[in-house]
Design goal:
This protein has 765 residues and is of the alpha+beta class. It folds into three domains: 229 residues, Gyrase A, domain 2 (2-Layer Sandwich), CATH 3.30.1360; 95 residues, Aminomethyltransferase beta-barrel domains (Alpha-Beta Plaits), CATH 3.30.70.1400; 221 residues, Aminomethyltransferase beta-barrel domains (Elongation Factor Tu (Ef-tu), domain 3). Helix 9 crosses helix 20 and helix 16 packs across helix 17. It is globular, with a radius of gyration of 34 Å. InterPro entries: Pop1, Pop1_N, POPLD_dom.
């Protein structure tokens, strides 16, 4: 073999750069033993040079201050606005902005705030002026009224507006109470500057704060925070188990029913709650809140809560069902001579989830004039180490000071020494409700009085500037009536006048370690706790079925726009919708499959028909063809579906039709199938695999069948993903009530051919 040729001059430099010089004979190595001090002293220069090179490489990089911040502190405007950077780094950030290393000139200063708004108004006026100038030359414009006549009409309108009496405002912030009795309250006009954006979808009190940090969703007449801009799936799961996560739920609707006497009050409570006569004393006396399903006309509507005070009832429910429920309640209370007030835009609310939720809200609420027993028990509950001991429905009501009057959140004080046993307090079943605070929140006058002398942000800053720099608070005459209730799923709800929600929120987000969430995070937390979320997991309710239907339509539109190469194959679905649960198909299939004439021998491979031209169902293929044909006619008719005739309904053990269906003795009418009874269950995989939304649920086939077929389909998954709390994929879904006692099932995701074994447990609804 010939020796390698020597490297040429061009390659020599490259080879030399990759050569590491080393000393073959090291005096610190004697008989295979290394003398550490001697070795370090001989290599000291090399070690120090290596450290310096690492530091130089780190600081010589082009990363600026705002690029080195942790993910939770990153802001889009941090590259040019030092107020978005922590104070200890602002000087360096300013130096970086002033330097011209990047060769980018400084941006021209743009008008901001009021100046920018004034310029925009001038621009609009100029556009209007140009249009008026064009109309002057038109023939039609000259035939109208003269300018003096138009001015006269405008003067008359102005004088009428001046004589019209408006609601008096007792503060400089423009906070007023907005409610109506006996009818749906019109949407508030909002800020003049942003009024045009709120014609259809109202802003919540914290909209400006959320719009900078969240993806917003337009639903139910509100702009609702959907999910933070930053990734937060793991963080949400962690905080829900260890800290506090808060939500602005002012989009939840409140209404007030004022009854003339106790008899009418009991009639209203029996109509809208799950209780019949006799009603529990804690409900009629108002010592605790009702936190369960809201009913109307013996029909379950949505989750909600209500609190009784005297002969008045404050009802809080999901906004999707509010208008229908309000109209129903107005009609129902006509004979009872009770009044119904729409407080949707008068009372706001916040939800707090997590084990430290009560401690968190206790840091920003400072009681004002509360009874001694109420304040001592409030401090006891706030400092409790195990909030799960507190029963559902526990309610506090009191007045608090403006939380902005404190520089920073303050930990609540300890309860008195003679009142530090939580179990003994719980055994007494005491009421922690201040009657004056309840009246302050239940009446329009009380809510208006709470806005009296309400400080603006500018006034707050001025007062702190005039106060002692060592003082932690300023004085204010404002008093806020607030109700705090423990609801389902270890959730605390705070209700206060609409315009006081933003000040409370601004202080809550200053509490260290607190996280904020939207609708997606609320759904995630409920899912990890094994609880269903309204309306996503309730296809047997009208709003849940509407959501499922909208999901299918959106997926169909998206699929139509895809090129053929990107469309997912659907042969394995056998006519099922690709998104959501195809409950319409499941009902038809469940009641049609037993009608197959299995004993008849087919004479030819074509379809056979009766004398009345109806297709005979001789096998599964005939059943699928019939169902598909009926579906096409249904779609052409634009899916006429009455909400009281949904394809699925919740199983009721006292219903004779449901009972006969489960026992197998029910024989449906071929011309009209009843709603399919279903039960809600939580599923967990027993081996490897994944669960996704809209997955199909099958019974485990008997005999030698390894994989289920279409005849084994019994339900759908409404919510499914990896569960951070369980450490395995889980799902929430509904199945045919005939299989309600089964514990094991098989699940297949949409578009997949693989089946996974899962165990199930029933969810109490």
């Amino acid at each position: 073999m010939h020796p390698k040729p020597p490297p040429n001059s061009r390659k020599a430099k490259l080879y030399n750069s990759r050569t590491i010089r080393s000393e073959a004979v090291d005096p610190s190595l004697n008989d295979g033993i290394l003398t550490i001090p001697q070795f370090l002293s001989s290599r000291e220069y090399e070690i120090r040079a290596f450290e310096h090179s690492q530091l130089n490489t780190k600081y010589a990089s082009s990363n600026r201050v705002f690029q080195s911040l942790p993910r939770t502190l990153r802001r889009r405007t941090a590259s040019h606005n030092v107020k978005r950077i922590p104070k200890r780094m602002r000087k360096k950030a300013l130096r970086e902005m002033q330097s011209s290393i990047n060769g980018v000139p400084q941006k021209k200063k743009q008008p901001r705030g009021r100046e920018r708004y004034r310029l925009k108004q001038m621009k609009r006026l100029l556009k209007i002026a140009s249009k008026i100038k064009q109309l002057r030359g038109a023939a039609a414009a000259n035939t109208s009224k003269t300018i003096p006549e138009r001015l006269k009409e405008l003067n008359i309108q102005l004088s009428e507006l001046q004589q019209k009496k408006l609601k008096p405002i007792n503060n400089i912030c423009g906070a007023v109470d907005h409610c109506c009795t006996g009818k749906i309250c019109p949407k508030p006009s909002g800020n003049v500057k942003y009024g045009s954006r709120q014609k259809t979808f109202t802003w919540q009190p914290t909209h400006i704060w959320h719009a900078k940090r969240f993806h917003m969703s337009k639903k139910w007449g509100f702009q609702i925070p959907f999910s933070p801009n930053q990734k937060c799936f793991r963080a949400t799961s962690r905080v829900a188990k260890q800290g506090t996560i808060i939500f602005d739920t002012s989009y939840y609707a409140e209404l007030l029913v004022e009854c003339p006497n106790t008899t009418s009050l009991e009639s209203v409570l029996q109509e809208i709650t799950k209780y019949n006569s006799p009603l529990p004393p804690w409900l009629t006396q108002g010592s605790r809140a009702y936190t369960n399903w809201i009913y109307a006309d013996d029909r379950r509507l949505c989750p909600g809560s209500l609190l009784v005070h005297g002969t008045s009832v404050l009802v809080r429910l999901h906004p999707s069902m509010y208008e229908d429920f309000f109209r129903y309640l107005v009609t129902f209370t006509e004979n009872l001579k009770a009044s119904v007030t729409d407080c949707r835009y008068a009372i706001g609310s916040l939800n707090l989830m997590g084990p430290t939720a009560l401690q968190t809200i206790g840091k920003v609420l400072h009681l004002n004039g509360a009874k001694r027993s109420t304040s001592s028990n409030w401090f006891l509950y706030c400092n409790s180490n195990d909030p799960a001991l507190i029963p559902e429905g526990t309610t506090f009501a009191f007045y608090v000071d403006d939380p902005r009057c404190w520089k920073r959140p303050v930990s609540p004080p300890l309860a008195p020494k003679n009142n530090r046993d939580l179990l003994s307090v719980l055994s007494k079943n005491e009421s922690f409700i201040d009657d004056d605070a309840i009246r302050g929140l239940f009446t329009s006058e009380g809510r208006t009085d709470s806005y009296k002398d309400m400080y603006s942000i500018k006034r707050i800053g001025k007062e702190f500037g005039l106060s002692d720099p060592f003082s932690q608070r300023i004085r204010s005459s404002s008093q806020i009536p607030i109700i705090i209730t423990k609801g389902a799923n270890q959730t605390w709800t705070a209700q206060a006048p609409w315009h006081w929600i933003q000040p409370i929120w601004s202080k809550l987000v200053q509490v260290p370690g607190i996280k904020t969430g939207g609708m997606r995070q609320e759904h995630q937390i409920n899912f990890e706790r094994g609880k269903a979320t309204f309306p996503y997991d309730y296809p047997y309710l009208s709003e849940g079925y509407k959501y499922n239907d909208a999901l299918q339509e959106a997926h169909a539109l998206k699929r139509e726009k895809m090129p053929p190469s990107k469309k997912q194959p659907t042969s394995m679905e056998q006519g099922l919708e690709l998104a959501g649960g195809d409950w319409w198909f499941l009902r038809k299939w469940t009641f049609t499959y037993p009608l197959i004439e299995k004993d008849v021998i087919r004479n030819h491979p074509f379809g056979e028909f009766t004398d009345d031209r109806y297709r005979r169902i001789l096998d599964e293929n005939d059943a699928l063809i019939v169902i598909s044909a009926v579906r096409e006619e249904w779609k052409k008719a634009k899916r006429p579906m009455k909400m009281d005739e949904l394809p699925v309904t919740l199983y009721k053990k006292n219903d004779h039709v449901h009972k006969a269906f489960v026992e197998g003795s029910f024989k449906p009418d071929f011309s009209k199938f009843p709603s399919l009874p279903v039960v809600q269950k939580k599923f967990q995989l027993t081996g490897k695999g994944t669960i996704k939304d809209s997955a199909r649920i099958y019974e485990i086939p008997a005999g030698n069948h390894k994989e289920p077929e279409l005849k084994h389909l019994i339900g759908f998954i409404t919510t499914g993903t990896f569960n951070m709390s369980e450490g395995v994929p889980t799902g929430i879904g509904s199945i045919n009530a005939k299989f309600k006692d089964r514990k094991r099932f098989m699940i297949r995701n949409v578009g997949c051919t693989r089946f996974y074994y899962a165990k199930a447990e029933e969810i109490k609804t």
